[in-house]
Amino acid sequence: MSLHAVIRKDFNDAIRSGTFLATTLLFVLVAGFWAAIQHVPLTASASDVPTSTLALLNSMGQPMSFFVPLLGLGISYAAIAGEGDSGSIKLLLGLPNSRRDVIFGKFIGRCAVLTIAILGGYFVVAVFALFTYESFAAVKFALYTILTVFYGAVYVAIGIGFSSILKSQYTAVIGAGGLYILFQLGWDVVTAILQVITVGYTPPDSGAPPWLIVVHGLNPTAAVGYAARVIIPTFDEIMSYTVSASFYPPKWAGFAILGGWLVLSLGFGYIRFQSADIM
Fold first, then answer.
1. pLDDT of the residue at 240
2. What gap in Å lies between CA 58 and CA 201, rounded to an integer?
3. CA–CA separation, 177 vs 215, rounded Å?
4. Rounded to whole angstroms, how far apart are CA atoms 132 and 130?
5. Mind telling me which residue stretches traverse the membrane in this protein (predicted)?
6. For position 242, what pLDDT does the model report?
7. Alpha-carbon dihedral of residues 143, 237, 194, 213, nearest 10 degrees?
8. Domain region containing 233
9. How far apart are CA 67 and CA 180, in angstroms?
10. How far is CA 130 from CA 30, 48, 53, 101, 121, in A?
């Protein structure tokens, strides 16, 4: 019953957040805009996937990669640090709730809130597609939606794990911003620098070396792209980077990397919170 109480409290707190509501609204508007563009890359024109379905899912990759991490980190960065900063963590642990209840309750509650935001945005997109696209692959769209929810849950776990090591909400805000920049831009910059140092500005005809592909793929933002190719194999045709002819990541690698980030982040947060001295 304690876990249920934490989930309910966290769900109510997160869903009433003004920042969350504003970001969700922006996500819905941007997702709808990208769906309306109906852009199909020329390289995919011969695909056996219905043109409109490929256009829709390819377009949804933009708001997914940009807004879902923002939503996930935005509702989780203060999960522990904010409670400690306000002093409410003492009350939360005295109800009685175990520290395990707090960590996993916050994760489940905030994932539920994130799911509502994602489903809201994708519902608008699906309705638009049903009325304006030539065809609509509902099953593939549903699988892509599930992948997006999973992707968001990874960032919620990362935010909670990171929040467990911080003492104030102010530092948590700065830290969350740093994490967002790292995963959205910094990781690619580091990978590009490593490429220039090791193989030059332009990769050889055989593609980037395997170890560099692994480094790039460890970023959850890149990993979700690999995972998407399991659902929509024709995404291979529109990938923007060259892969090595001698090394191609297995299709399940994206799911494994995302799962690793989720488990390790949440596990780290739990271990760190268990040993924390609550004053």
1. 47
2. 27
3. 22
4. 6
5. 20-40, 60-80, 107-131, 143-166, 178-201, 252-271
6. 46
7. 60
8. 3-275
9. 10
10. 18, 20, 10, 42, 15
Question: What pLDDT shows up at residue 115?
Answer: 92
Q: Which of 132, 134, 150 is nearest to 142 (CA)?
A: 150
Residue 134 amino acid letter = E
Residue 42 DSSP class = G
Question: Which pTM does this prediction carry?
Answer: 0.86
Residue 1 has a pLDDT of 47
Which pair of tokens denotes residue 108?
A: 């489940």
- The answer to whether the beta carbons of residues 61 and 55 sit under 8 Å apart is no
Side chain identity at residue 216, one-letter code: H
Find all residues with CB under 8 Å of 223, minimum gap 6, and list them. Answer: 217, 253, 254, 257, 258, 261
* Residue whose tokens read 């024709």: 234
The count of structural domains within the chain is 1
149: amino acid identity, one letter: V
User: For residue 244, what are its two tokens?
Assistant: 């090595």
Please provide residue 208's backbone torsions phi and psi, each rounded to the nearest 5 degrees. Answer: -65, 150
CA dihedral sign of residues 225, 112, 74, 263: negative
Query: Which residue ranges in the chain fall short of pLDDT 50?
Result: 1, 39-44, 240-245
Task: Kindly list the distances between the CA atom of residue 176 and the CA atoms of 34, 63, 258, in Å, as whole numbers in the listed order.
Answer: 26, 19, 18
| H/E element, 262 | helix 253-275
E-assigned strand segments in the chain: none
- pLDDT score, position 50: 52
Q: For residue range 202-221, what is the model confidence (pLDDT) as tens digits?
A: 766 666 777 888 888 899 99
Q: How far apart are CA 94 and CA 88, in angstroms?
A: 10
